[in-house]
């Protein structure tokens, strides 16, 4: 019995039917389109069974599956090693074409290269598309073709190019949804995937206050955070729609979206930054890396209220306000002289919006070891940051219930820690 000729669209960091470039092109191809999502063992095996991000992905896959049922179709969800899953799909269907949107992280590019080789050896045509960014890879470069390593000139070139084509095209595939493969697949339970429901949930994004974003974004007690980052990370919102909208709403908010693309370009151009300093001259810094100090930082018991509130918020909710992230990161690297990789790994474990390029980029910014980073002699004073951005202690009291009962002493004196950090950096930096 002959197998049905089909195309496959491979969902990854693009969990939506609307304005999805790869899906748009798949539905405009010759064959019925089977939508597929693969829970990748290489990623899942290191995660706790109640990982909230897996739950968020699962809930959005269920949403997509419900939408597909309106067109007598369904989402095919698999779990396992990606190469084995694709071998199975090629055996089950006569796969003529495969469509997917690009992912620029090192593991993803290696995985995709291996899958493309497998597909091409099976005479299956592959198509990959830019979807999660406005400009990718080498689209924003200096005059000599080299990547920017300083944000401001990158931003200026980005804006120049965007304005020349604004608004960026959005891809409406609604009229072609009838091209989805007609059939049903058994949708697995979360338990069958090997995970369980988490008490931590991803919040709905909120853009109602963006007009005043520049005035309120630094004050954690106001809680005027868009909560967009997890949605951008997993593609439940379209980067194109968001940028086209933000361009007319608030320049500072738009700049944050451009920072996201800047760090993606840095990761793509300099993959070593995942584990190594962008500035090799900083490799000689002698970190203390005291495990007991690190545990106090992780648990939010440093004696510095702004630091502790931020860490407790992270541990309880998977979120941390951006201003507080800077204070917390600076404290770990400068006050405690613990290398940024330790903090990056902890954030990777806890953050609902964990994105490799942004996490690495921001941690190296705080440590001073990254491109366009804060200078090494800039050491945030957590007490001054608290007075400037949470003067009445509203944010602190929300996360430190015992704060008014006589809070503990700081684990390290700021003046001493600052002097020690500057001296250690000076000694360790290779001229």
UniProtKB/TrEMBL annotation:
In the record, biological process GO terms are: nucleobase-containing compound metabolic process; response to light stimulus; response to stress
Site (Electron transfer via tryptophanyl radical): which residue positions? 287, 340, 363
Q: Which organism is it from?
A: Flavobacterium fryxellicola
Question: What is this protein's name?
Answer: Deoxyribodipyrimidine photolyase
State the SUPFAM superfamilies in the record: Cryptochrome/photolyase FAD-binding domain, Cryptochrome/photolyase, N-terminal domain
Q: Which family does it belong to?
A: Belongs to the DNA photolyase family.
| Domain of life, source organism | Bacteria
Question: Photolyase/cryptochrome alpha/beta domain location, by residue?
Answer: 5-134
Q: Which residues form a coiled coil?
A: none
Key words of the record? Chromophore, FAD, Flavoprotein, Lyase
InterPro entries from the UniProt entry: Crypto/Photolyase_FAD-like_sf, Crypto/Photolyase_N_sf, Cryptochr/Photolyase_FAD-bd, Cryptochrome/DNA_photolyase_1, DNA_photolyase_1_CS_C, DNA_photolyase_N, Rossmann-like_a/b/a_fold
Which cofactor(s) are needed, names only? FAD; (6R)-5,10-methylene-5,6,7,8-tetrahydrofolate
Q: Where does FAD bind?
A: 213, 225-229, 253, 256-263, 353-355
Annotated GO MF terms = deoxyribodipyrimidine photo-lyase activity; DNA binding; FAD binding
* Any Pfam family hit: DNA_photolyase
Describe cofactor binding as the record notes it: Binds 1 FAD per subunit.
């Amino acid at each position: 019995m002959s197998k049905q000729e089909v195309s496959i669209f491979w969902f990854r960091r693009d969990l939506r039917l609307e304005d999805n470039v790869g899906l748009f092109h798949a539905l405009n191809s010759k064959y019925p389109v089977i939508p597929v999502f693969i829970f990748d063992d290489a990623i899942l095996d290191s995660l706790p069974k109640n990982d909230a991000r897996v739950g968020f992905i699962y809930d959005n896959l269920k949403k997509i599956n419900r939408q597909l049922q309106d067109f007598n179709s369904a989402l095919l969800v698999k779990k396992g090693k990606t190469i084995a899953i694709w071998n199975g799909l090629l055996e089950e269907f006569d796969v003529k074409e495969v469509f997917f949107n690009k992912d620029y992280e090192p593991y993803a590019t290696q995985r995709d290269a291996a899958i493309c080789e497998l597909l091409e050896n099976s005479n299956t045509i592959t198509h990959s598309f830019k979807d999660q960014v406005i400009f990718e890879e080498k689209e924003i470069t200096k005059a000599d073709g080299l990547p920017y390593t300083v944000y401001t000139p990158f931003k200026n070139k980005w804006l120049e190019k965007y304005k020349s084509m604004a608004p960026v095209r959005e891809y409406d595939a609604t009229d072609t949804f009838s091209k989805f493969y007609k059939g049903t697949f058994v949708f697995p339970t979360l338990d069958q995937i090997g995970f369980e429901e988490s008490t931590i949930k991803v919040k709905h994004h909120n853009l109602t206050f963006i007009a005043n974003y520049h005035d309120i974004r630094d004050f954690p007690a106001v809680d005027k955070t868009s909560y967009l980052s997890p949605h951008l990370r997993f593609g439940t919102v379209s980067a194109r729609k968001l940028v086209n909208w933000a361009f007319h709403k608030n320049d500072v908010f738009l700049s944050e979206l451009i920072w996201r693309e800047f760090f993606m370009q840095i990761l793509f151009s300099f993959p070593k930054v995942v584990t190594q300093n962008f500035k090799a001259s900083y490799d000689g810094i002698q970190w203390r890396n005291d495990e007991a100090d690190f545990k106090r930082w992780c648990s939010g018991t440093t004696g510095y209220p702004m630091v502790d509130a931020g860490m407790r918020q992270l541990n309880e909710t998977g979120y941390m306000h951006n201003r507080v992230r800077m204070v917390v990161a600076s404290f770990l690297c400068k006050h405690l002289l613990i290398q940024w990789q330790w903090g990056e790994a902890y954030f990777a474990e806890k953050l609902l919006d964990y994105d490799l390029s942004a996490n690495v980029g921001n941690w190296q910014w705080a440590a001073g070891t990254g491109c366009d980073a804060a200078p090494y002699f800039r050491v945030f004073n957590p007490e001054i940051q608290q007075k400037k951005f949470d003067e009445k202690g509203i944010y602190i009291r929300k996360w430190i219930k015992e704060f008014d009962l006589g809070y503990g002493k700081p684990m390290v004196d700021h003046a001493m820690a600052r002097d020690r950090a500057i001296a250690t950096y000076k000694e360790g930096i290779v001229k």
